[in-house]
Design goal:
single chain; 6 helices; alpha/beta; 197 residues
């Protein structure tokens, strides 16, 4: 009996002294991330353009030429942007490793059209008045907007995203934007322009 009690005490002491397993960091559910991503897109569209309709490239990109897998552009952005959480950066890189097709059922606070690359090529390969054709078809749009996927911190209150808009042959800009969410509302904390035409 004494032996059993001694073994029990030793077992409890050993269990109490063993290092605790680290608690895994909870990750937000995919549907929650999708909702926040749509909220970021909707906020940026209304903040930057305030139009009644948008044309958005169906496939995501991180620069004017598509998904830029080099670190050159992102390094430039990070040199000119402060307080980007490491988690946000890891999320951005992971979610933008390849181009992805945006969902056609996004809630962006207003009407929008997703334009495929093939559709864009059809508009602009007809003749030199491609922008005339575009604006005849989409008179409410500020041009063609391209988004990256949004990188988030785990708490979903910091976001990093690329947004570019081309409005005519030599009218366009592309930005990386760092957003913060305070009291349920997104706002632009910082932005870095990476191209202009």
């Amino acid at each position: 009996m004494f032996k059993n009690i001694l073994l029990l005490i030793l077992f409890v002491c050993a269990a109490a002294c063993s290092p605790a397993k680290p608690t895994p960091i909870p990750t937000p559910a995919t549907d929650q991330i999708n909702r926040e991503e749509q909220a970021v897109y909707a906020f940026l569209l209304s903040k930057m353009y305030q139009h009644r309709g948008y044309v958005i490239m169906a496939d995501t990109a991180t620069s004017a030429s598509g998904v830029d897998n080099t670190t050159k552009t992102l390094d430039y952005v990070l040199q000119n942007m402060h307080d980007v959480a490491p988690e946000t950066l890891v999320s951005f890189r992971s979610r933008n490793a390849t181009a992805q097709t945006l969902r056609p059922d996004m809630q962006l606070g207003g009407p929008y059209t997703l334009l495929s690359q093939a559709g864009r090529n059809r508009i602009f390969s007809q003749n030199q008045s491609g922008w005339d054709i575009f604006y005849n078809r989409y008179p409410q749009a500020p041009g063609i907007t391209t988004f990256s996927r949004v990188g988030f911190i785990t708490s979903l209150d910091q976001a990093l995203v690329y947004m570019g808009t081309q409005s005519n042959w030599l009218v366009g800009t592309g930005y990386y934007l760092l957003l913060i969410k305070v009291n349920g509302t997104w706002s632009i904390d910082q932005q870095v322009m990476i191209w202009v035409s």
